[in-house]
Amino acid sequence: KSGFVTLIGRPNVGKSTLMNHLIGQKIAITSNKPQTTRNRIQTVYTDEERGQIIFLDTPGIHKAKNKLGEYMVNVAEHTLNEVDLILWLVEPTDYIGAGEQHIIEMLKNTKTPVILVINKLDTLSERDQMLTYIDTYRKVYDFAEIVPASALRGQNTDLIIDLIFQYL
Length: 168
Ligand code: GDP
Ligand code: MG
Fold this sequence. Notes:
nucleotide-binding; GTPase Era; alpha/beta; binds guanosine-5'-diphosphate; membrane; globular; 5 helices; rRNA-binding; RNA-binding; 7-stranded mixed beta sheet; 24% strand; Rossmann fold
């Protein structure tokens, strides 16, 4: 199997950390070379038995404020439709801000399955908090999966890989 995945989410949610963790575990090639005018390959994750996951960069998912912004949003929407799977990383909180709302609106325009990763599980003192956050997000969008994880500690990162392969 092989397929394309895009990792989206606000700055600081842990996208790079998750990617680095995956690279640390398996053979991976990172590249910043432009592949097409639309997409940049971030990482190719290779598993000898299961295949390849090609992670693509999605440019700025935000509200367009000008022509360039509009262009970026169009590119981003296009990428969301072209990939096999979207991984959306969020902070462990039940506050869904304007940025998240905007992403949800964009996701509603695509049929691509979305796995929501509620990252930084290790920062929570109580397990119940995570259950509340899962519940909050479950209500706002029909996610293919919702996975609590810690990119930093590697909690549930193997599960994320397993789930990705299921959707390729
Ligand atoms: P990005 O902007 O989405 O790529 O986020 P980064 O991967 O650069 O992470 C931003 C900050 O969050 C860094 O200081 C990371 O160490 C931290 N971080 C990322 N994942 C986790 C996590 O699972 N737990 C904790 N405690 N910190 C994390
Ligand atoms: Mg980053």
